[in-house]
From TrEMBL:
<comment type="pathway">
    <text>Amino-acid degradation; L-phenylalanine degradation; acetoacetate and fumarate from L-phenylalanine: step 1/6.</text>
</comment>
<keyword id="KW-0560">Oxidoreductase</keyword>
<dbReference type="InterPro" id="IPR036329">
    <property type="entry name" value="Aro-AA_hydroxylase_C_sf"/>
</dbReference>
<protein>
    <recommendedName>
        <fullName>Phenylalanine-4-hydroxylase</fullName>
        <ecNumber>1.14.16.1</ecNumber>
    </recommendedName>
</protein>
<dbReference type="GO" id="GO:0005506">
    <property type="term" value="F:iron ion binding"/>
</dbReference>
<dbReference type="InterPro" id="IPR018301">
    <property type="entry name" value="ArAA_hydroxylase_Fe/CU_BS"/>
</dbReference>
<feature type="domain" description="Biopterin-dependent aromatic amino acid hydroxylase family profile">
    <location>
        <begin position="1"/>
        <end position="273"/>
    </location>
</feature>
<dbReference type="GO" id="GO:0004505">
    <property type="term" value="F:phenylalanine 4-monooxygenase activity"/>
</dbReference>
<feature type="binding site">
    <location>
        <position position="126"/>
    </location>
    <ligand>
        <name>Fe cation</name>
    </ligand>
</feature>
<feature type="binding site">
    <location>
        <position position="131"/>
    </location>
    <ligand>
        <name>Fe cation</name>
    </ligand>
</feature>
<feature type="binding site">
    <location>
        <position position="171"/>
    </location>
    <ligand>
        <name>Fe cation</name>
    </ligand>
</feature>
<dbReference type="Pfam" id="PF00351">
    <property type="entry name" value="Biopterin_H"/>
</dbReference>
<dbReference type="InterPro" id="IPR036951">
    <property type="entry name" value="ArAA_hydroxylase_sf"/>
</dbReference>
<dbReference type="InterPro" id="IPR001273">
    <property type="entry name" value="ArAA_hydroxylase"/>
</dbReference>
<keyword id="KW-0585">Phenylalanine catabolism</keyword>
<comment type="similarity">
    <text>Belongs to the biopterin-dependent aromatic amino acid hydroxylase family.</text>
</comment>
<keyword id="KW-0408">Iron</keyword>
Length: 273
């Protein structure tokens, strides 16, 4: 989720030309290739079939960063979605408006070789490789659009609760399948460490309950201590038709669960550690 306010990024998004084409450098394409090759090796037996089906439809190139028009052509046919070229960070209103209109924001920059394993700002690899294959799935696509519509009308405090639901599903969700437990969240799929961690015995796996997800604190800069597991992806379609804002208000009354992680170190503490 890239909607942030009051924060700066060192990354500069590349602007497309009049034809919508972005001229990526050889180094940037090489970074994409490195990320693709190492992550594709981890996918079999770990990600859900719906993601693999989406990858097959998108046919993402391995040796270069895809142009957004290539991705758009597949998404439009599958679920009516498109990508939207955006800067590294965008306001919450823009983020929700794009999702509500079935346009998935993609920041047109790619991480540096020094930050291959982790960066706080979602880049084009995270958005395209992590999320776009799932956007070919109708249940996932409908839930994401519904989330955008709700967020657009929500108050700032309501949006904080909605963000937790998004984090526990779209970004870091697991799903049970006839073949076993699998990953569908883009935040896991685009991270080699998180991919291995999520399906290990280290974190807690809890049955998905939207009320619990709304009340669960998280940190963006650590391996997740807890993942919620869907019975199947159709749960997201059913959730899109429920009174999510009613659940948000109930969660606000109940309050948050105790965090399962230590507080984030302050800059001075981190420097002296």
């Amino acid at each position: 989720m890239k909607a942030q306010t009051g924060k700066k990024t060192a990354y500069q998004a590349r602007m497309p030309d009049a034809q919508g084409h972005i001229a990526w450098t050889d180094q940037e394409n090489a970074t994409w290739k490195t990320l693709m090759e190492r992550q594709v090796e981890l996918l079999p037996g770990r990600v859900c079939q719906e993601y693999l089906d989406g990858m097959e439809r998108l046919a993402l190139p391995v040796d270069r960063i895809p142009q957004l028009a290539e991705v758009d052509a597949v998404l439009r046919e599958a679920t009516g979605w498109e990508t939207a070229q955006v800067p590294a960070l965008i306001p919450f209103d823009t983020f929700f408006e794009l999702l509500a209109n079935r346009r998935f924001p993609v920041a047109t920059f790619i991480r540096t070789p020094e930050e291959l394993d982790y960066l706080q700002e979602p880049d084009i690899f995270h958005e395209i490789f992590g999320h776009c294959p799932m956007l070919t799935n109708p249940a996932f696509a409908e839930f994401t659009a519904t989330y955008g519509r709700l967020g657009l009308e929500a108050s700032p405090k309501e949006r904080v609760y909605l963000a937790r639901l998004y984090w526990m599903t779209v970004e870091f969700g697991l799903v049970d399948t006839p073949e076993g437990r699998r990953i569908y969240g883009g935040g896991i799929i685009s991270s080699p460490k998180e991919t291995l961690h999520a399906l290990s015995d280290t974190p807690i796996h809890a049955p998905f309950d939207p009320m619990d997800a709304l009340r669960t604190p998280y940190r963006i800069d650590i391996l997740q201590p807890l993942y919620y597991v869907l019975d199947d992806l159709e749960t997201l379609h059913d959730l899109a038709n429920r009174d999510i804002m009613g659940m948000v208000h109930q969660a606000m009354e109940l309050g948050l669960f105790e965090p399962r992680f230590p507080p984030k170190p302050k800059p001075a503490e981190a420097a002296s550690a």
